[in-house]
Task: inverse folding
């Protein structure tokens, strides 16, 4: 399996490291060579049909700020035209306005029957149907476990392990930054602005925190869950969204008196698509603290199933991408066996 990594920041470099560490085990399990044949960032690239040493490329990126020769006005896709690869790992920045460059990158790969594994929410939250139709039409596969919940395996759990279930609804905490802020308000009695400043100082929240605190990130993830698990045809704009900007310290304190906490909950079902602050009884799984992500799935046979894990981070997100790569290897291995 020949892989190109498009986007070589935190997650791209995590994927490079994960592949270096796991390739020998995976190769012997699936009897297939696993090679990284191309790496791209916004300004430079490195390609080799024989396979690159992903750790070496990551080292170069950290030392020189680039992965290889400059693109020099050439587009990534122009160079990719000449590269023979099977899977594109698309990990450029999420753009919730127009989904670029991720959407064009993914469409380029899927249109030629290649597989795409991504953590990039923009294209999935805005143009899911177009992407999945293109994949289906051309025989490519689109996998995106890392786009929701980071290392928490909610998508593949729902679509594969729980395939025989009817999933009635999913409620989750999908933004660790909001959870951190709400927790600091409750535990330390901090007003919202001060808890937000602390989150920014600790590197959890961006200088422009709107993406997290106004529920934009959570809504993008809710839209992806609706499309992927409930087979709905929605975009990020269809999500009823209220963020945590309006949550006052008084409201948090009042909730505590009733042994409840305020949590930013994403709820998705066949008929619901909503992100809003809600009251959750202390002791309920969704009252989880820290920056973890959590999902509670209501199913028709198994009842409630809860999964929690790290929603972000270099190696955590890379682990979800790796799980999708392994799923592709497994499928390829099964079809080779069938043909033999
Ligand atoms: N970080 C996490 O924990 C996490 C968790 C879940 C999902 N995600 C998603 O994963 C994706 C990557 O996140 P990240 O944290 O790795 O972001 P990042 O550190 O900002 O890295 C983005 C990379 O994309 C490159 N890039 C930007 N525009 C490009 C273009 N037109 N063509 C090729 N490469 C381009 C950047 O190039 P330069 O290096 O030259 O700037 C950089 O290498 C995002 O969509 C994010 O939402 C991240």
Result:
């Amino acid at each position: 399996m020949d892989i190109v990594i498009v986007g070589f920041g935190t997650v791209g470099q995590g994927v490079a490291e994960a592949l270096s560490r796991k390739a020998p085990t995976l190769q012997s399990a699936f009897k297939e060579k696993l090679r990284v044949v191309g790496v791209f960032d916004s300004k430079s690239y490195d390609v080799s049909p024989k396979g690159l040493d992903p750790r070496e490329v990551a080292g170069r990126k950290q030392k020189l700020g680039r992965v290889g020769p400059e693109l020099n006005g050439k587009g990534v896709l122009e160079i990719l035209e000449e590269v023979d690869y099977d899977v594109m790992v698309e990990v450029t920045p999420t753009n919730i306005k127009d989904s670029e460059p991720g959407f064009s990158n993914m469409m380029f790969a899927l249109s030629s029957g290649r597989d795409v594994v991504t953590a990039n929410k923009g294209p999935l939250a805005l143009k899911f149907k177009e992407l999945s139709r293109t994949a289906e039409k051309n025989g490519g596969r689109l996998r995106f476990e890392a786009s929701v919940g980071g290392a928490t395996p909610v998508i593949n759990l729902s679509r594969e392990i729980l395939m025989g279930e009817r999933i009635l609804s999913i409620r989750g905490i999908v933004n660790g930054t909001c959870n951190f802020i709400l927790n600091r308000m409750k535990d330390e009695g901090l007003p919202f602005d001060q808890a937000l400043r602390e989150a920014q100082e600790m590197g959890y929240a961006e200088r422009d925190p709107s993406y997290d605190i106004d529920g934009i990130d959570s809504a993008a993830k809710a839209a992806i869950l609706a499309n992927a698990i409930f087979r709905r045809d929605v975009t990020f704009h269809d999500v009823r969204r209220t963020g945590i900007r309006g949550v006052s310290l008084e409201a948090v304190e009042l909730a505590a008196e009733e042994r409840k906490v305020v949590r930013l909950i994403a709820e998705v079902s066949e008929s619901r698509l909503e992100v809003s602050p809600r009251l959750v009884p202390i002791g309920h799984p969704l009252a989880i603290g820290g920056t973890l992500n959590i999902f509670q799935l209501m199913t028709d046979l198994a009842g409630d199933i809860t999964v929690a894990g790290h929603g972000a981070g270099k190696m955590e997100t890379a682990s979800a991408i790796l799980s999708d790569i392994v799923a592709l290897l497994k499928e390829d291995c099964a079809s080779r066996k069938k043909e033999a």
